[in-house]
Amino acid sequence: MSILTPKSAAKGRRLSIVADQAMTGLLPLVDGWADVITVAGREISRRHLSEADVLLVRSITQVNQQLLRDGCVSFVGTATIGTDHIDLNLLEHSGVGFAYAPGCNANAVVDYVMSVILSSRSIADLRGQRIGVVGYGNVGRRLAACLNYFGLQCYVYDPLLDLAELDQMEHCHSVSNLDGILDCDIVSLHVPLTRTGNAATEHMLDLVALKKLRKNATLINTSRGAVINNHDLFELLSKRNDLVVALDVWEFEPQPLKKLVERVSYATPHIAGYSSAGKVRGTQMIVSAMLKYYAGASSCKNYCLPEQVTLTPLACVGIQNHPQLEAYAKKLMLIFPLEQETQSFKRDMMNTPADQIPEVFDRLRKDYQLREEFDYTALINTVVEHCS
After folding, report:
1. What is the CATH number of domain 106-273+320-379?
2. Which residues are the active-site residues?
3. What's the predicted TM-score (pTM) here?
């Protein structure tokens, strides 16, 4: 493995940052102490990084040896909850600082999942059904708390947590294996994309697993596209019309299988976490981490850096102001009109020639109008009464 060589800091100079142009709220945070060049995420290349100290990305830039070789980047940040697009081993062995933003868009993703649940079932039907959650991280924890808040049955499977730990959780019932979740009426996936180890999640749902979904089940994926084998999913849906499937993430992005887009019930272009607060929160998290990194690096003491940055207050809709599921559902559909978003995305995909789909997919994400979000954080680690 080639090792990157971060350059030494020149006395009293400003940081040079190359950032994805979709990095919301960055410029006000660094105004006066850093120079910023913004580039479309898929277009960031080595030539942009030849004099850069910092690279800030979102989910679509592949940060690897090919990108960073011969450059002088000393810190990489991604304003996302996932890191599968980052070569973490390379950064570690090269002494390059790194930060990501776990939980930054968790509220918005819960909004998305709840909109699917409430669109695919009547509230009366939901009362007697089981909702399975795979992964009990920032999103899974908030989703479980939300379901518990409204008195809905939640079951959780997380192979990274032992059953004793799951059994102590306030908002859900623990399940010992994936099959137990696949037997639920609704299944929602909230795991990172990993390719090695006993708990690898790539193609966690292949054809064998997918066939275990119960009749009339709803399957939701807002994590990473390749957690589900998309060819296998299409094969299953070609034979079963009882299933409701909602996909916000797609294997082979930015060129999802066109036939699968047409077949699923709800389809969107990887925007489940696209709220105004979530985007700004992610940027704030990595800028704060960047300042902490440079403040603690002895070779970087002479940069012109502030001790801290002024963070923008983030406005969210209070979940506790909507204690009744019916009122919550009404507000949620205004925040995120799932049916309308699905119709728009499917129309764009179906009317686009195959060779132009990647460009259209990326444009839909870039031009997406950021939305409000509910704040579920107050429900975590808080015992609440079931609501009717």
Report:
1. 3.40.50.720
2. 224, 253, 270
3. 0.89
Query: What's the CA gap between 279 and 273, in Å, rounded?
Result: 8
Structure tokens at 54: 């910092």
> In CATH, which of 3.40.50.720, 3.30.1540.10, 3.30.70.660, 3.50.50.60 is domain 15-104+276-300?
3.40.50.720
> What is the domain partition of the chain in residue ranges?
15-104+276-300, 106-273+320-379
DSSP at 300: G
Contact 306, 33 (CB under 8 A): yes
Residue 339 CA to residue 204 CA, distance in Å, equals 28
CB 199 within 8 A of CB 177: no
pLDDT in tens, 262-300: 999 999 999 999 999 999 999 999 999 999 999 876 555
CA distance 313 to 306: 19
Q: Do domains 15-104+276-300 and 106-273+320-379 have the same CATH topology?
A: yes
Alpha carbon 137 to its chain centroid, in Å, reads 11
Sign of CA dihedral 323, 325, 330, 333: positive
Residue among 335, 228, 352, 276 nearest 104 (CA): 276
Among 92, 19, 90, 74, residue whose Cα is nearest residue 303: 74
75: enclosing H helix or E strand: strand 75-78
Tokens of 65: 């040896």
